[in-house]
Amino acid sequence: MSKQPPPADCCVAPLACAPLTEDEAAELAPLLKAVADPVRLRLLSLIACHDGGEACVCDLTAAFDLTAPTISHHLKTLRRAGLIDSERRGTWVYYRLNPGVLERLSAVLAPRAATTR
Question: Considering the entire predicted model, what is its pTM?
Answer without folding.
Answer: 0.77
